[in-house]
């Protein structure tokens, strides 16, 4: 009976319904049984993160809860937006009147919490505690430790943990491949990857992402094609890395093939994936296809808009870039500092000096963003392209930050364009 009532809790259960189920369990005295109480708390906590506070209130009514619901709370909070609260329940285990002790599940969840928080000191403390309780040889904890130390960018600790595993299984090998790829040790990652008797999609995706992050774009694409030959499905996250590799190489044909793969395999068009497609097409020179992808996207964020605007500016479509910026503001999307780099470049390629100046001033006055060196460089380029070299030089001399090579370089290019030798020879050497 009690289990039937508890089974009514699912991911769509709202607080009002939870209270009704809770009342039914109380009326029948089921929650006097700590095991049934634990099952109810677990169901509430794990089915819907929005109900975590309510499950916490229920648990507070029990003086001596069992380890199970406390572990469930640790697990639930580790996946929530407030993972640090996991440690409240760990400390409750340690202070338990019924002499509870943390088990392998406790530490498995805590290790992953530390990884999510990127908390090095806490991670070391948890590692020390699990050694004290004798769980250092638990395979799930070992894989979790490798993942945690990778998030902490401590590759030597990943190697140490992995080296202590007498017979690494698929999970630990995959964790180590992912760790090395994340920490940019793609050589060791590939060596381990190549000797794995079986490779799951996580390992493949980790290697592709690792190559892309290290600028080894050709290797990333080669591995992607090998992955297809072996019939392994790539996920949306790694497809972003594939598109990044295509962009870096300027490989439009490869990018088209990757786009076809996305459509053929019906990969979910996430905002990040769509933005990567826009970036790839724009930087490979097919701005019309980039904009086709942009308009087809149902969901966009500021990075999507900025990527499209940057692509238009890069391909000489300044007016379209500025029109898109106006539409972006109408849609209520707040621009960021990169957005204004695209806007200023859009002004520059069509010679809209006054409009560019207005946009530059709005960066701080309207949007509260401190202009960065790249914004100043764009303004110098704007003045220079328009032939207003004296204004460009005056702008550089009055910058509140030290002029960088990009600003001087933009002015030098303008001097060459307009054959102003007198000014060009006087510019600092760093240009």
From TrEMBL:
Bilayer-spanning residue ranges: none
UniProt cross-references to Pfam families, sorted A to Z: PPR, PPR_2
PPR repeat start and end residues: 200-234, 270-300, 301-335
Molecular-function annotations in GO: RNA binding
Keyword set, alphabetical order: Repeat
Keyword Glycoprotein belongs to the record: no
Segment forming the signal sequence: none
Keyword set includes Repeat: yes
PANTHER family per the UniProt record, alphabetical: PENTATRICOPEPTIDE REPEAT-CONTAINING PROTEIN, TETRATRICOPEPTIDE-LIKE HELICAL DOMAIN SUPERFAMILY
NCBIfam families given in the database record: PPR (TIGR00756)
Name of the protein described by the UniProt record: Pentatricopeptide repeat-containing protein
Species the sequence originates in: Morella rubra (Chinese bayberry)
């Amino acid at each position: 009976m009690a289990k039937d009532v508890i089974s009514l809790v699912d991911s769509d259960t709202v607080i009002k319904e939870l209270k009704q189920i809770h009342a039914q369990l109380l009326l029948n005295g089921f929650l006097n049984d700590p095991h049934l109480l634990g099952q109810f708390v677990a169901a509430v906590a794990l089915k819907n993160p929005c109900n975590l506070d309510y499950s916490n209130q229920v648990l507070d009514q029990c003086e001596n809860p069992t380890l199970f619901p406390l572990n469930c709370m640790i697990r639930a909070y580790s996946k929530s937006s407030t993972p640090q609260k996991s440690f409240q329940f760990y400390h409750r285990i340690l202070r338990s009147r019924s002499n509870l002790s943390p088990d392998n599940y406790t530490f498995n969840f805590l290790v992953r919490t530390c990884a999510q928080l990127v908390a090095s000191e806490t991670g070391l403390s948890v590692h020390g505690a699990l050694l004290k309780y004798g769980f250092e040889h638990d395979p799930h904890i070992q894989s979790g430790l490798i993942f945690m130390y990778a998030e902490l960018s401590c590759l030597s600790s990943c190697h140490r943990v992995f080296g202590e595993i007498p017979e690494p299984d698929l999970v630990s090998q995959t964790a180590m491949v992912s760790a090395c790829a994340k920490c940019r040790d793609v050589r060791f990652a590939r060596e381990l990857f190549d000797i794995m008797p079986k490779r799951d999609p996580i390992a493949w995706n980790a290697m592709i992402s690792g190559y892309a992050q290290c600028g080894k774009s050709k290797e990333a694409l080669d591995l992607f094609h090998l992955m297809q030959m072996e019939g392994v499905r790539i996920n949306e996250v790694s497809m972003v890395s594939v598109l990044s590799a295509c962009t870096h190489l300027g490989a439009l044909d490869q990018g088209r093939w990757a786009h076809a793969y996305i459509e053929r395999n019906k990969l979910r068009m996430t905002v990040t994936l769509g933005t990567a497609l826009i970036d790839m097409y724009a930087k490979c020179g097919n701005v019309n296809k980039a904009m086709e992808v942009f308009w087809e996207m149902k969901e966009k964020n500021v990075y999507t808009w900025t990527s499209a605007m940057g692509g238009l500016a890069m391909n000489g479509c300044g007016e379209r870039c500025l029109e898109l910026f106006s539409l972006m503001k109408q849609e209520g999307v707040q621009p960021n500092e990169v957005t204004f780099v695209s806007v200023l470049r859009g002004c520059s390629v069509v010679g809209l000096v006054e409009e560019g100046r207005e946009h530059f001033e709005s960066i701080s006055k309207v949007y509260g963003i401190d202009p960065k060196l790249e914004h100043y460089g764009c303004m110098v380029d704007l003045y220079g392209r328009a032939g207003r070299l004296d204004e460009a030089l005056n702008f550089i001399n009055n910058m509140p930050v030290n002029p960088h090579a990009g600003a001087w370089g933009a002015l030098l290019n303008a001097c060459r364009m307009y054959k102003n030798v007198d000014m060009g020879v006087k510019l600092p050497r760093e240009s």
